[in-house]
Amino acid sequence: MNDKPENRVDKIVAGLLRGRRLKLRGGDAEEKEAITAAARLAGMRQGPQRMHPAFRNRLARELEQAPREGWMTRRAALVAGLGLAAGAAGGYIGRAVETRPVEAAVRPIEPLNGRWIDVAALKDLTEGQGKRVTAGSVGAFVFRRGDGVTAVSSICSHLPCELWWDGRGEHLVCPCHPARFTSQGHSATSYDLPSLNPVHARVTAEGRVEVLGTE
Amino acid sequence: MTAQEQPGGPGEVVELPAAPRATDIALNELELVYAFIYARVGNRADAEDLTQQVALKAIPRLRQGAPASAIRGYLFATARSVLGGFWSTRLGLSEAELREDLALPVPTTPPSDEGVEIVQQILAQLSDNYRRVLELRFLHGYSLKEVAAEMHSTVGAIKVMQLRALRAAARLRPLE
């Protein structure tokens, strides 16, 4: 009986109305719309909330102790949308932001206790076209290069969003912001974004494509 | 520094205002971030955890003397990413479904204090029964039993109505 969606959602609503944390479980995804609406209604009903003084003090202490990189990097500015705003603001923000060069070398993904995972048959891959694969916890796009393959991480190097393959434009595209990458993983926009992490991939004697992933 | 870069002429004393510390500015901006997150997760414990994550991720990267607008932009970009991760982990929401949250604009002023009025405006777009059940539950804090008595119905029927009303409310634009 408790598995009925109306019971699950009511349990979540009752918890929210008592000020409790959202305790969700796998099957709740089917009612994600109702649950997020309940959370928003519960959040809005008391008007905008301010931080509890004890939490604010704790946060202040943690901020004082936090290791400080000292500069807002260009990448950080781009997250904030400031890269685009800088031109419009007459360069004001541009001056406020350090344009530290982005590191050139990006390390390949080498999981501890990595394992080669079969992800596809080589014959099923089209030359130069990306195919999204999963090797345990490693998500990657693999590309056929003749009789070989290359692979890059499927996570954007800027915001941690899942990229998608735009076959027409032949780019990996980030859904979260205007960033594109070549099939080699290099940034294809004017922003100096770090390249995507390479992922180890190989073709077996049987013509199977394997990616170094996790269990 | 070359002579051309001196702020004043010879003998002139230029008083520069002391720049507020980035941490102080950020703490004030984090009040907005907290309100933004609380309005989406609906409870203090999760809102505090997520605000803390935003602060610890973003603050070390903000430079001393950065303008408040830059700090706010970066904090909210981080908040959207952290909220996305929260819902993604809890509900398995895909990136496409998170786009609503990711696309939310950065607030430029503190939110108004009219929570109940805003909820009522949103609920006014629902049918009478749906509006009533959500008003009684969320604004008046009625139990299901009390709502059932008020609406001359059964607890089971009210539970189903509550679920359908929430699904309908999710599709209303101001909730996005």
Short description:
The complex is a heterodimer of chains A (215) and B (176). Chain A has helices at 5-17, 32-44, 53-65, 74-79, 82-88, 92-96, and strands spanning 115-121, 131-135, 138-145, 148-153, 164-166, 171-173, 180-181, 201-203, 208-213.
What report would you give on this structure?
- The complex is a heterodimer of chains A (215) and B (176).
- By secondary structure, chain A is of the alpha+beta class.
- Chain A folds into 3 domains: 5-44, no CATH class; 53-96, no CATH class; 115-213, 3-layer Sandwich (Rieske Iron-sulfur Protein), CATH 2.102.10.
- In chain A, 27% of the residues lie in helices and 20% in strands.
- Chain A is built from 6 helices and 9 strands; from the N terminus they run ααααααβββββββββ.
- Chain A has helices at 5-17, 32-44, 53-65, 74-79, 82-88, 92-96; strands at 115-121, 131-135, 138-145, 148-153, 164-166, 171-173, 180-181, 201-203, 208-213.
- In chain A, a hairpin with a 6-residue loop joins β6 (171-173) and β7.
- The longest helix of chain A has 13 residues, at 5-17.
- The relative contact order of chain A is 0.13.
- Residues 69-104 of chain A have low confidence and may be disordered.
- With 176 residues, chain B is mainly α.
- Chain B has 2 domains: 22-102, no CATH class; 115-175, Winged helix-like DNA-binding domain superfamily/Winged helix DNA-binding domain (Arc Repressor Mutant, subunit A, Orthogonal Bundle), CATH 1.10.10.
- The longest helix of chain B has 24 residues, at 68-91.
- In chain B, 38% of the residues are buried.
- At the A-B interface, α1, α2, α3, α4 and α6 of A face α1, α2, α3, α4 and α5 of B.
